[in-house]
Amino acid sequence: MSDILTHTDGGVTTLTFNRLDKKNSITSAMYAALADAIEAAAADPAVRCVLIQGHETVFSAGNDIADFLNHPPAGQDSPVFRFLRGIAQFPKPLLAAACGPAVGIGTTLLFHCDLVYAGDNAAFSMPFVNLGLCPEAASSLLVPQMLGYHRAAEALLLGEPFMAEAALEVGLVNRVLPPTEANSYAQGVARKLAAKPLASLVETKRLMKKGQTTLVMDTIAEEGASFGRMLREPAAREAFGAFMERRKPDFSNL
What we know:
Blueprint (H helix, E strand, L loop, with lengths): L3 E6 L2 E6 L10 H16 L5 E5 L11 H6 L8 H10 L5 E5 L2 E3 L1 H4 L6 E5 L3 E3 L13 H9 L1 H10 L3 E2 H7 L4 E3 L1 H16 L3 H11 L4 H19 L2 H11 L10
Parallel strand pairs: 2-3, 3-4, 4-6, 5-7, 6-9
Antiparallel strand pairs: 1-2, 7-8
Helix pairs in contact: 1-3, 3-10, 5-6, 5-10
């Protein structure tokens, strides 16, 4: 069975992380499947909106580290950057339902969504600094915009988790629900959107994001260049080595 399930019904395309045994960590092949599905949904006039969801116990643990080290992003045409550009430029409503851990890209992709629903067990984190890396997915721009600078600095510099209620307070999520209800609730909202005129949905979203898209795309590119460079530097090598060896990283000389 595919690690990304794609299902379209009633104008709603639902993309489901389906790698529960690996906490829905994302491989290069999964990014390619997501990018293809987002591109197809954008082009299909029968699709009114897209919903990204995981399991009630985990949204996504972020990048699959072993796969990431074996298949690092190789330029702007790599699957991960195709996915990031796809969600950043997606013209129709983009929704997410997130329960349990949402790590790294599992959190940053939510900043590109129009509506987000969280289980009360959700734990969001962006631990890029702890891996010797920098923010991605335009999070260095979008996180301060939404959270305010000091809360963004806390989230991005410390990389520590913040919970569903805190995400609700700052506006990252629209509603907090029992984990068993989050996906179905988001699906209900998606169906409400799918009943509305597509042209109105697209134009309303365009007007709300007017002037922002170019800056977001430029930030994704700049972050990607820094991310790729830092991935080859000693701090990241130490962080990833420690992760694979199940030990605490030592950055004392870095």
